[in-house]
Amino acid sequence: MPRFTDTATCLARFPYSETSQVVTLLCRERGKLRGLAKGCLRSSPGAVARFTGGFEPLTGGTATATTRPAWELAAVTGWDLQRPRHGLRASLERLRLGCYAAQLADALLAELDPHPGLFDALATLLDALAGPAADPQAALLGYHWSFFTELGYRPELGRDVHRDAPLDAAAPATFDPAAGGFTADPGPAAWRVRPSTRAALAAAAEDARPADRVAERAEQAAVRGLPGADLARANRLMCSYARALLDRELPTMRYVLGTGSPPPGAATAAGAATAARR
C-alpha cells in the first residue's frame, strides 16, 4: 500500500528505543493502525519537523504512514499535532473517561478496518471532555451509543429479544448481553435494569445522528437534561455490555464501573456481575 496521510487520534504509545516509539492510531479513513514512529523522540530539526508536537494519548492530528502486508508494524513517518486537548488533564474524571473510551476502541476494533463514524464519535467525546461545559456522563453515553451502533452491537430497546414482541418501556425488564437487548424474561444470565436507565438509553438513541453528522454536537440534547445518576447507570450498563462482548475487563473499565465493584444493577443468579438494581 502506498504512503498515505489521514486524520488520526492517538490511542496509545509505547517506548521502542531511546529515539523511537510504537504508536496506536485511530485513523478516520484507514482505521486502527499500529506503527513504528522511528526517530520521533530525536531533537534534531528534521525529526522535530516530521513529528510536530509528539505523540500523546487522546490527542489528535494528521498522520503520515506506510503499510505493507509483510510488515507487522506500519512505518509512521509524520505526525502533525492539531488537537492537544489540554483540558483533559485538568480533570481526573474526564481524563479517565477519555482513556476508557480510547482503550475500548483499541480493544474492539480490528486493524485497518475503517469506521469513520466511530472515529468522529471518539473525537467528539474527547473534545467535549476537554471543554469545561459538557456533562462527562452525557458525552460518554452518546459515545457508547454511537460506538455500539457503528460496530453492529446496538442494544435493542423497543422489542423483547427473547419473544420478538414489543416491549413496554414502563414494564420491568432485564438486559441480556448475549442477545444484545432487553427482555421481560428474568433469566439467570440477564441483568435487571431500572426503567430510568432504559429511558436514558432511549434518549441516547433519540439523539443519534448519521455518521457524517455525529461530530456536529459535543453533547446531545435529549440526554442533557437527565439526572446524573441515570446517565451514570446507563454508562455502567454499556460498559458491562462491552465487557461481556470482550469476555474480559479492560483496566480502564473500573473508572466507569467503580473500583472493585461489580456493575451496579446487573443482578444475576450466579452473581457474576451483580449488585443493586439499575
UniProtKB/TrEMBL annotation:
Short name of any one Pfam family annotated for the protein? RecO_N
**Role this protein plays:** Involved in DNA repair and RecF pathway recombination.
In which residue ranges is the amino acid composition biased (Low complexity)? 266-278
Can you tell me which family this protein belongs to? Belongs to the RecO family.
The Gene Ontology biological process annotation of the record reads: DNA recombination; double-strand break repair
List every stretch annotated Disordered: 259-278
Query: What Gene3D superfamilies does this protein map onto?
Result: Nucleic acid-binding proteins, Recombination protein O, C-terminal domain
The protein's UniProt keywords, in alphabetical order, are:
DNA damage, DNA recombination, DNA repair
The record, for PANTHER family, names:
DNA REPAIR PROTEIN RECO (PTHR33991:SF1)
Which InterPro entries does the UniProt entry name for this protein? ARFGAP/RecO, DNA_rep/recomb_RecO_N, NA-bd_OB-fold, RecO, RecO_C
Q: What is this protein called?
A: DNA repair protein RecO
Q: Which residues form the DNA replication/recombination mediator RecO N-terminal domain?
A: 1-81
Which species does this protein come from?
Phycisphaera mikurensis (strain NBRC 102666 / KCTC 22515 / FYK2301M01)
Q: Quick one: which gene encodes this?
A: recO
One Gene Ontology cellular component annotation held by this UniProt entry: bacterial nucleoid
Q: Which domain of life is it from?
A: Bacteria
